[in-house]
Amino acid sequence: MKFAVVTGVSKGLGESVAKLFLEAGVNVIGISRTKNDALSQIAEQNNQLFTHYTCDLGDVASIEKAFNDISKTLYAKEPSFVYLVNNAAVVEPIDQAMNIQAEDLAYHVQVNTVAPMVLTNLFLQKSLEKDVPLISVIITSGAAERPVYGWSAYCSTKASMNMYTKTVSLEQDELKTGNKIIAFSPGVMDTAMQEQIRTSSYDEFMDVEKFKDYKKNNHLKNTETVGGVLVDILRDEATVKNGNIYYVRDYL
């Protein structure tokens, strides 16, 4: 039995990835603050398992509890392979760096950087303990590679995730574990995050009109299309290149 653990399954790319895994015969464990009943129905239709765990990724104690609960259930089923998809992220606060409140910045870093690192670290440990191969993917962004006015937090956290991916992949190669970690850059998609971005003022986010034009001109990618690319990459386990940053633009 193969399992995929997906964060942020309540909507957007996370929901699409979970749905596509279920349709491909992979059981799914979802992590989010809000339950997604539609995924339970899709799992039933495809004779797969979908289990949801409520977790605030902005709280380390909540992450560790969720992992402990998940690992007890997951590894009791003796999975043959585990995929970990660190999808959940926040874009706010969007503003000039000097205007950002410390509390808002700390929460942003917790969700976008600390949470995927903690989950990946814990699953890597467990994969060795249980001798179950793992591929972990972190959803990154083009913002990781270029500065964007008003996105000091988002650019910085996504850039840190790219370096984390490269560093951990180096460790796994040196240790010859067979486990892999990659990053996936999905481009601009039609999601709730994009709606948040479009509500920004020009002073907060200088490119706001460009993002409004993406929506107006139908240039936002469908999350199911993008999710399909990611699921296809992951399911061809032997060809996944450890430490690689995959870009959806190379496939669509």
From TrEMBL:
Keyword flag 4Fe-4S: no
Keyword Phosphoprotein assigned: no
Group of enzyme by EC: oxidoreductase
GO molecular-function term, one example from the UniProt record: oxidoreductase activity
Location(s) in or outside the cell: Cytoplasm
Keywords on record: Cytoplasm, NADP, Oxidoreductase
EC number(s) on file: 1.1.1.320
Family: Belongs to the short-chain dehydrogenases/reductases (SDR) family.
Name of protein: Benzil reductase ((S)-benzoin forming)
